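Students often ask why we bother encoding 3D structure as a string. The short answer is that it lets us treat folding as translation between two languages. Here is a chain of 814 residues written in the first language.
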Amino acid sequence: MQFIRSAFRFIMSKAVGWLVSVKSVPANIEKELGIDRSKPIIYLLQTESFTDQVALEKSTKALSLPDPFEDIIIEGTPRKRRYFLDEPQGLLSRKVKKTAIEDIFTEYFQLHRQHKELDLQVVPVFISWGRSAGKEKSGFAQLMAIKASPNWLRKFFIVLFFGRDNFVSYSPAVSTRQMAQLHGSDKQIAQKLVRVARTHFQRKRQTLSGPTLLERQTLYNSILGAESVKAQMHEEAEDKNISVEEAKKRAVEYIDEIAADYREGLIRLGDRVLTRIWNKIYDGIDVGHAKRVRELARNGHEIIYVPCHRSHMDYLLLTYVIYHEGLVTPHIAAGINLNFWPAGGIFRRCGAFFLRRSFAGNKLYTAVFREYLELLFNKGYSVKYFPEGGRSRTGRLLPPKTGMLAMTLQAITKGVNRPVSVVPVYIGYEHVMEVKSYMKELKGKSKKKESPTQVFSAIRKLKNYGHGFVNFGEPIQLNQFLDESVSDWRDSLPEDDRKPKWLTPVVNKLADSIMRRINRAAALNGTALVALCLLSSKTQIMSKKELVRSIDDYLKMFKQVAYSEDATLPHEEAAALVDRTLALNRFEQSEDKYGSMVSPKNDNAVLLTFYRNNILHMFSLPSLIMTAVFAHKQLKKSDVLALVDTLFPLLKREFFMHQSIDAARDYVDGLITYFIDCGMLLQSGEYIQAPDAKEDTFHSAWLLSRAMQETWQRYAIVLNVLEREKSIGRAQLEKQSQVIAERLSALFGMHSPEFYDKNVLASFVNALRENKHVQSMDNGELSFSQSSLALKDAIMPLVWPEIIQHLAQIEDAR
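And here it is in the second language, the structure alphabet:
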């Protein structure tokens, strides 16, 4: 009889296995969940389903976990390794019968009383087929929706249609030894374990599928019935001299323009298509700290993803990663410029909702959009939007636009049923398809409007792009953030729909915190490191041997003195990393009798600045140390730390660095110690100095001293203009600085359009004002001060002599 059952299971497993493709979440259960393979493991599933068990068997085999169909020997007695909370529904009845799981665990806890060394790991496993949450009305979507215990006929169709979209999601193990020590009888402890497991599986289902989808009419009724929208419809009618019914039609048009039309089937199709595309163009997608997001979802948080924005690929890549991490895909805020045929309709059905670049005083549109956003939050949908507002053309983070964040906080103040957390996300690439157009735009060419032609052209050009990187930063729990920022915010809310007085400064603080956490979670990659080295080289060409040595030194630096706990480093050794990067065919390679040389390809050094800028913030303080030492020949450590006190607030503002001034001092102190230990700096009594040019470490130190040179030059230009004019309007200061920067760029071959970018210059001027290095006069002009002079005296020695000479010549020519 046992043989017949085994043979039947084998045949059925093969048949079902042909239909099933399993994705295991998380992929590394030991690191993320703390499951110990050396201890006995038993699996706890929601429903006693043969197809679920087959999926679990495939997953455990791939993860090298015990086979769920094999018995486990406990105190000399063979027992099953898999258990279930419920039996499946009957074919003609919706009633779900419970299994004898409580009695089974009661017996296990009794065994623990007898055998003190016994400790089993109960691993809850949620098996999901498809992601359909269903709709409010019945239909095919409801038939296919995730149900706790579907009958065998429904399960047949589910496996048939969704077998290739199966997720096996593991949760942290529960120690039976620890459970046995809880207060209460063995029966009561078993009941508690089962009760907690049921709640856990319900949350898992919500995490994977999301809330029930809104019917269109329900969406209209919810938004049009909101008091703020009704008030604005009446105001629109009065202001535009139209009927309220006409104003309502406009509101409906706004809803249609804005709202997503999420279709789970299109998400599954998109997964198939994107998997093929990613496999074609990327060597891999590295994901960091996804555990954070799963923990938030497991704890019932509403999640708002706020990633940096460097490419149109961001929309697809982040959603793809979220999907494959076993989480419900978010609704995505997209610019109205992307709502063109056919992309707009596809994006909308994948969860995109569209917003205009400017609300431009359109109060009715603003009210509709805010109510739609609040509806998403209240219904439990995860949301994604880009705080920078648009794609960065320079590769560095842009100053955040705060409109969406303000509406998010206002929604929170009105009351959202679940805790809401913002998750900053760093996205990086070894190649960005738009980078050439970015450089043209920075040089003055107008931005091309998105169109079908652009889309098809981009698809045609898809090729090997190396690796993509997605790192989830440290979340911000918004209610907690509000409590810490404005302790009495609940008592200070206006009775009407006006924004509270404290909102703007709190939103600015939140935006700044998000951007810093994004950069804190940066990913070093091969293209960025090679770009940084080549651009720091005097001639933008290096021997391959020197390149490998420098990158190896920098990787060792970050391993020994980490930039942050969230930043990630390449897994390969430096030589392998350089070889893989050069294989992407983005750099020129040549040979002479002394070996290989590497340089930018086809005079494309300017393109490399984009990739360098992705990681430049990580090198700013190491570079400052080296620049100061090379400039002054020798310095005391205290002098370097004093320079950090002066310049770090400006660097922090410009590069969204996460450290406090005290943390920055400690970090620099650690770097100096490391540099001395590895030979990149020398200790001579109380002074530190650069290594001899004959030393192997000299070239890495010298390159590092040049990495931030354009930043120091830009600072020097602004301060020189300010000193020359004594007092000057902000706009005029930025314009004159831009003209001089363009001239220096042409004369000295600066390979970075951002060197004279007005937004970057404006950011530095803002930093000067915030840190009181300039005085604001009554007429609005900025005046040179003693603080300005002290800052200039600190910066000028860091700047190349030829730049200082030319700045003096410009002054003499006036």
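Translate back mentally: The chain is about 55% helix and 15% strand. Keep this in mind for the problem set.
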